[in-house]
Specification:
Blueprint lengths: L1 E8 L4 E8 L9 E4 L3 E7 L3 H12 L4 H10 L7 E7 L4 E5 L8 E4 L3 E6 L5 H12 L5 H14 L9 E7 L7 E5 L5 H12 L3 H4 L15 H15 L1
Antiparallel strand pairs: 1-2, 1-8, 2-9, 3-4, 4-5, 5-6, 7-8, 9-10
Length: 236
């Protein structure tokens, strides 16, 4: 009932996950990221602890293969699950249980991983992968959305559309971008619109927030507003 892409952008160091489905609030359940380390998408008859425990395992230095093996070993419902994991080294591991509904499967790419179940056909993942590769010149968030839209054009979730999400992390524990469309007639189009809105102010404001390297961040509102105005004016 879902397909997702996990990707690493070497130019920014960001890890991103985009996902779409005919189900409510997919962004609250499927994507999980350990900043600077890797990402996990847990889907089909979703097991939330795959994401919760999997992120801990990645932070402990476990490889994607080890993460998948450990999670599956403790879950008697593993054959109804789908899971894929990728780290910043490009290592990928995945599991699609025997009880997942066709079409279901997984694709490994250079710097990205794709998995889906209950899809219109294999072309959904194929076209998602092709679009991700073809749009390398796009900013990371836009590239992920373009890839998902290509998968939707190939049929997407065979039951229809309802929700979509985009989660991107840089080096901080908090997200660079966390967009969720929980219930919409055209969720990927709405996700694309929200990403455009994020570029009006949020992406320019984000660098002033506290970080581990600069725990206070920038608090002078005149400095913040001036920098944002200068950045947006330059892009106009």
């Amino acid at each position: 009932m879902t397909w997702s892409i996990i990707a690493h952008d070497p130019s920014t160091g960001q890890i991103g996950i985009a996902v779409a489905t005919k189900f409510f609030a997919v962004g609250a359940r499927v994507p999980h990221i350990a900043p600077g380390i890797g990402g996990i998408a847990t889907q089909a008859l979703v097991n939330l602890y795959y994401g919760i425990d999997g992120v801990k395992l990645l932070r402990d230095g476990r490889s994607p293969v080890e993460v998948v093996d450990i999670l599956l070993c403790s879950d008697d419902g593993r054959e109804a699950r789908q899971l894929h994991v990728m780290d910043v080294k490009g290592r990928i591991a995945a599991h699609t249980g025997k009880e997942c509904i066709d079409w279901c499967g997984h694709i490994r790419g250079d710097g990205f991983s794709l998995a889906g179940n209950m899809l219109a056909g294999a072309a959904v993942l194929d076209e998602t992968a092709k679009a991700y590769v073809a749009n390398a010149a796009l900013p990371f968030a836009q590239r992920l959305i373009a890839a998902m839209k290509a998968g939707e054009a190939a049929g997407g979730d065979k039951r229809g559309k309802q929700s979509a999400a985009l989660l991107i992390h840089g080096e901080e524990e908090w997200s660079d971008l966390d967009l969720r469309v929980d219930d919409h007639t055209d969720p990927l189009a709405e996700l694309e619109r929200l990403e455009q809105v994020s570029r009006e102010r949020w992406v320019h404001f984000r660098p002033f927030l506290p970080t581990r390297r600069n725990p206070a961040g920038i608090t002078d509102r005149a400095v913040i507003d001036g920098a944002i105005e200068a950045t947006t004016a330059a892009k106009a």
